[in-house]
Design a protein that fits this description.
about 375 residues; alpha/beta; 9-stranded mixed β-sheet
Length: about 375
C-alpha cells in the first residue's frame, strides 16, 4: 500500500476529561528539603506545572495550530507513518526532511516552519533558500506510534524515511536532525547516497581517539560526554534495557510522563532555574501531550532498546555534512574528532547560546545556520 492520506488531529473530549481527572487525583511523593534539581524534578515546581497543565493549558488551541499545517499518513514497511508536509510557494524551493528526537516531537519545529518555507515573508536575507519541509514523526512516536513489532532501529527508520521521500516524488533532498534525528539523518545519508545531497545536524557525538592528542579546551568538551554517561544517562539505560516496565508508569500517570520529559528540558537546555528559561511552557506541554495522548511512552523508548548496541557509532557520509554546536547541549563535540569520523564535514558553527532542543530554544539561530549550510550546497 503506497497511498498517502490526509490526516487531522482530533482528540476526543473524553481523552481530555480523563487527563484532567488523573491530574486531579495525582498522588504526590515526599521530597528531601533543599534537594533542588539534584535528585530530579523538584516537587514544588512539578506541582505548579501540573496545575497549569490542568487549569491553564488549552490543548484545543495547540491542536488547532498543529492542524494549520498539512499532515498525512502512509504505510511503509508495515507501519503507519505520520508526517507534516509543507510545500513552499517559492519556485526554486528544495526538499528538506527534518527529524526530531526523544523526548521531542514534530512540535519542536513549529517556530521554524514559516521562516524555512517562506524566507521572503519572514525577512530573510536576499538569496536565502526556501524549503519544502517534510517533518515525520519517528515510528513509535506521536501519531506514528505505537509500533507493533520489534526491529524499529535507526537503520530501519532511515530506510522508511528514504521510501517516504521517494513516495513524495523527491529525487534529491537535504536532511537535518538532532538527538535521534541526528543518528537517523546520518543513517539516511549513508543508506540513500544517490538522493541525499547534504546533511545538517544540531547534535553530534564524538568519541575519544587515541591517535589524536586533545588540547585542554577539547578535553573539556569531551568531558561533557563523560558527565552525560555518568550522571545524566539514567533514562537511557532504563529505556534501552527495560522500556516495557517503564511504560506502565508513564502511560498511567500524566504527572509521571510530565516529570520524565520536563527533567530533560531542564538538564539539556540553556536554562537556569526551570525549563521555561529556555522553552515556552505551553510549547513544552504540547510536546508532552503528543506522548500522552498517543500512549507512546513505551514505543518511543523502544528505539533505545533497538539501537543500544550501536550507540555512538556513526556511518560515514559521502555527501557534505554541516554541524551546528549549541553550547548547552547534553554533550559537546570536538571538531578534530568529528573531522576524522566524518571526512566530508564542511561546515561547523559554534553558537553563542542554546541547547539540545535548538529549533524550539533558538529558532532564529537554528534557521540561519540551516539556511547558510544548505545554500552553500546549491544547486543540487
Amino acid at each position: 500500500m503506497t497511498e498517502i492520506a490526509p490526516f487531522r488531529i482530533d482528540i476526543p473530549q473524553s481523552q481530555l476529561d480523563d487527563l484532567h481527572a488523573r491530574l486531579d487525583l495525582t498522588r504526590w511523593p515526599e521530597e528531601l528539603p533543599g534537594a533542588g534539581w539534584d535528585h530530579g524534578v523538584p516537587l514544588g515546581y512539578l506541582r505548579e506545572l501540573a496545575a497549569h497543565w490542568r487549569h491553564g493549558y488549552d490543548w484545543r488551541a495547540h491542536e488547532q495550530r498543529l492542524n494549520g499545517y498539512p499532515q498525512f499518513t502512509t504505510e511503509i514497511d508495515g507501519h503507519r507513518l505520520h508526517f507534516l508536509h509543507i510545500r513552499s510557494l517559492e519556485p526554486d524551493a528544495v526538499p528538506l526532511i527534518m527529524t526530531h528526537g526523544w523526548p521531542g516531537s514534530i512540535a519542536e519545529f513549529l517556530d521554524v516552519i514559516g521562516p524555512l518555507t517562506d524566507p521572503r515573508g519572514h525577512g530573510a536575507p536576499e538569496g536565502s533558500p526556501a524549503f519544502h519541509l517534510v517533518l515525520p514523526s519517528i515510528p513509535g512516536y506521536g501519531f506514528s506510534g505505537p509500533t507493533t513489532e520489534a526491529g524499529w532501529n535507526v537503520a530501519r527508520v532511515a530506510n522508511a524515511f528514504a521510501e517516504l521521500m521517494r513516495r513524495l516524488g523527491y529525487d534529491r533532498y537535504f536532511a537535518q536532525g538532532g538527538d535521534w534525528g541526528s543518528a537517523i539523518s546520518l543513517a539516511l545519508g549513508a543508506a540513500d547516497p544517490d538522493h541525499v545531497h547534504a546533511v545538517h545536524l544540531n547534535m553530534l557525538i564524538t568519541l575519544p581517539d587515541p591517535e589524536i592528542e586533545l588540547t585542554e579546551a577539547e578535553q573539556a568538551k569531551l568531558a561533557t560526554l563523560g558527565r552525560y554517561q555518568d550522571e545524566l544517562s539514567g533514562y537511557m539505560k532504563i529505556q534501552s534495557t527495560r522500556p516495557q516496565t517503564l511504560s506502565y508508569g508513564l502511560t498511567d500517570s500524566p504527572v509521571g510522563q510530565l516529570a520524565w520529559i520536563a527533567e530533560k528540558f531542564k538538564e539539556w537546555t540553556d536554562s537556569d532555574s526551570a525549563p521555561e528559561d529556555a522553552v515556552d511552557r505551553d510549547h513544552l506541554l504540547t510536546n508532552v501531550m503528543l506522548y500522552w495522548l498517543t500512549g507512546t511512552a513505551g514505543s518511543s523508548a523502544r528505539l533505545y532498546y533497538e539501537s543500544a548496541r550501536a550507540w555512538g557509532r556513526q556511518p560515514a557520509l559521502s555527501c557534505p555534512l554541516g554541524v551546528a554546536v549549541f553550547p548547552h547541549d547534553l554533550t559537546q563535540p570536538v571538531r578534530r574528532l568529528a573531522e576524522k569520523q566524518q571526512p566530508t564535514l564542511t561546515h561547523w558553527s559554534e553558537m553563542p547560546r542554546g541547547g539540545h532542543f535548538a529549533a524550539m530554544e533558538e529558532p532564529e539561530l537554528f534557521v540561519a545556520d540551516v539556511r547558510k549550510f544548505f545554500r552553500d550546497q546549491l544547486p543540487m
